[in-house]
Amino acid sequence: MAGPWRSLAEVRERVSSVHHSSSLSQQICFYDDWAQEYEQDVAVLEYRAPQLAAACLASASPAPPHEALVLDVACGTGLVSQELQRWGFCRMHGVDGSKGMLERAHRKGLYQELKQCILGQEPLPAPTDHYDAVIIVGALSVGQVPSSVVPELLRVTKPGGLVCVTTRSNLTNQPYAAELRGVLDGLAQRGLWEKVTVQEVEEWERATSAQETAQGSAYIPGVIYVYRKCGAPGS
Ligand SMILES: C[S@@+](CC[C@H](N)C(=O)[O-])C[C@H]1O[C@@H](n2cnc3c(N)ncnc32)[C@H](O)[C@@H]1O
Questions:
Q1: Ligand 1 surroundings by CB, under 6 angstroms
Q2: What is the 16 CA–ligand 1 centroid distance (Å)?
Q3: In this structure, are strands 157-168 and 219-229 parallel, antiparallel, or unpaired?
Q4: By alpha-carbon position, which residue is closest to atom 10 of ligand 1?
Q5: pLDDT (tens digit, 9 = 90+) per residue, 67-117?
Q6: How far apart are CA 117 and CA 21, in angstroms?
Q7: Which end of the chain is more exposed for a tag (fewer CB within 10 A), N or C?
Q8: Residue 165's closest CA among 47, 32, 78, 53?
């Protein structure tokens, strides 16, 4: 167990520093350093994304959850798989850029496979058309994983399989969120996947900057998208 819990102000300061990391390697170092206290800190932020996204994926999932092979991208310490397990998912692989985060995820004992992968720099370490579902939570946002990674999520998903992605809709992430929507819509227009669900969430997590709280709420909003890859299952 890490030391005493930090105050909201201290957690906000830490989170804002990731958004100011200039290079990909700086971001990954930030997460290596954060791994040990990540779960305590996001609890202070009332971060609900893993639980909301897992529920969304579970309700869209056509197959019995215990049969589905799921890839948790940017898995961090494994909060998403912990939530997926509550819904009956038990075949889970994870990837993340941070060794520190992967070590914490490994301790959960929920993943059959965990691999390091720097998204935006290298392809996902998985074959094409491999997973029944691919999920990425809390990582598609400004200063983290680029939206150009989304086609790679689609590539490793089986035809008929689901891709669940989340982003924040707060002020500072709005340009990124618009760019992400463009990528999602573009793939739909090309007939590569179809939209299954969009869930807008008002209270995604507590605001992490004074600028955000000035918008009139102590919380920032977020959104969850679920898409189904086109093509017949098993094709
Ligand atoms: C906010 S955490 C989210 C973790 C987990 N999905 C959750 O919801 O708790 C973001 C994760 O993305 C990973 N990450 C950020 N940028 C990355 C990149 N370019 N490549 C791979 N992983 C990255 C970090 O190491 C971190 O574990």
A1: 24, 27, 31, 49-50, 74-76, 79-80, 96-98, 101, 118-120, 137-139, 144-145
A2: 15
A3: antiparallel
A4: 139
A5: 999 999 999 999 999 999 999 999 999 999 999 999 999 999 999 999 999
A6: 19
A7: N
A8: 53
Evaluate whether 226 touches 162 at the Cβ level (below 8 Å). yes
Average pLDDT, the chain: 92
Domain boundaries, the chain: 8-229
CATH of domain 8-229: 3.40.50.150
Cα(113) to ligand 1 centroid in Å equals 17
Residue 1, pLDDT score: 44
Task: Read off the pLDDT of residues 122-155 as tens digits, 9 standing for 90 and up.
Answer: 999 999 999 999 999 999 998 899 999 999 999 9
User: pTM, whole model, 2 decimals?
Assistant: 0.94
Alpha carbon 170 to its chain centroid, in Å, reads 16
Nearest to 31 by CA among 121, 99, 118: 99
CA-closest residue to ligand 1 atom 26:
76
Identify the residue with better confidence: 97 or 7. Answer: 97
Mutate to test the pocket of ligand 1, among 108, 144, 153, 166 (most ligand atoms within 8 A of CB): 144
How much distance in Å is there from the Cα of 77 to the middle of ligand 1?
Answer: 9
Rounded Cα–Cα distance for residues 229 and 233 (Å): 9
Q: How far is the CA of 23 from the centre of ligand 1 (A)?
A: 14
Handedness of CA 219, 77, 123, 119 (dihedral sign): positive
Q: Report CA(235)–ligand 1 centroid distance (Å).
A: 32
Alpha carbon nearest to ligand 1 atom 18, residue: 119
What percentage of the chain has pLDDT greater than the value 90? 77
